[in-house]
Amino acid sequence: MSAPTAKAAKGAAATQGGLFIGSWQIGTRQAGAPTLSIHCTFDAASGSVHGLGQLQQSTDPPLDMSCRLDGDYAYLTVMPDASHIMLTLTGHPALHWPTPGGPGPMVQPVLNLRMVLAADWQTGTATFQYRRPDGRWERVESAPCQTITDAPLAGMP
């Protein structure tokens, strides 16, 4: 599978070697609704995606959760002129484990994301579920997503 660099450059910054980056904001932007920002690196040769996610919600108590994202993407073409891109990502808490400390603990996921983007990588729809600090899982369905054009190239906004 290969990603057309010209298409990727519109919604994501293309680089040499089949790697490109992209950032999206997911959510309805309504007061109190959760907003998920993701910043990802794509490997066109393998179809893998890795990055960072930040989920925020202005509730009481407020939610501010960061996670490491891993998954894959694929082109979905059901008709000749109707292609989409499907991202499937799983988020785990970002742990800072010492290098000589061994493989580290087994950590359960805190986020599951399915996002379908238009062929231009600019907009789409996402469904995600996340684990709240009290252990309950919340689900957000059919949330709009759009590219973040002013995101820094490294780290979170």
What report would you give on this structure?
Residues 18-137 form the DUF1842 domain. This is DUF1842 domain-containing protein. The protein has 157 residues and is mainly beta. It has one domain (5-95, 107-146). Helices cover 4% and strands 55% of the residues. It has one helix and nine strands; from the N terminus they run H-E-E-E-E-E-E-E-E-E. It has one helix spanning 5-11, and strands at residues 12-14, 19-26, 35-43, 48-57, 63-79, 82-93, 111-118, 123-131, 137-147. It has an eight-stranded antiparallel β-barrel. Strand 3 (35-43) and strand 4 form a beta hairpin. The longest helix has 7 residues, at 5-11. The chain is globular. The model is unreliable at 1-11 and 153-157 (pLDDT under 50).
Q: Topology of this structure?
A:
Elements: H1 5-11, E1 12-14, E2 19-26, E3 35-43, E4 48-57, E5 63-79, E6 82-93, E7 111-118, E8 123-131, E9 137-147
Antiparallel strand pairs: 1-2, 2-3, 2-9, 3-4, 4-5, 5-6, 6-7, 7-8, 8-9
Domain DUF1842: 18-137
InterPro entries: DUF1842 (IPR014992)
Protein name: DUF1842 domain-containing protein
List keywords for this structure.
single chain; 157 residues; mainly beta; disordered C terminus; DUF1842; DUF1842 domain-containing protein
Short structural summary:
This protein has 157 residues and is mostly beta strands.
Biggest sheet: strand arrangement: 2-3-4-5-6-7-8-9
Tell me about the largest β-sheet. 8 strands, antiparallel, barrel
Low-confidence stretches: 1-11, 153-157
Shape: globular
* SSE order, one letter for each helix or strand: HEEEEEEEEE
User: What is the count of structural domains?
Assistant: 1
Q: Tell how many strands the DSSP assignment holds.
A: 9
Task: Quote the beta fraction.
Answer: over 45%
Structural class: mainly beta
Q: What's the N-to-C terminus distance?
A: 30 Å
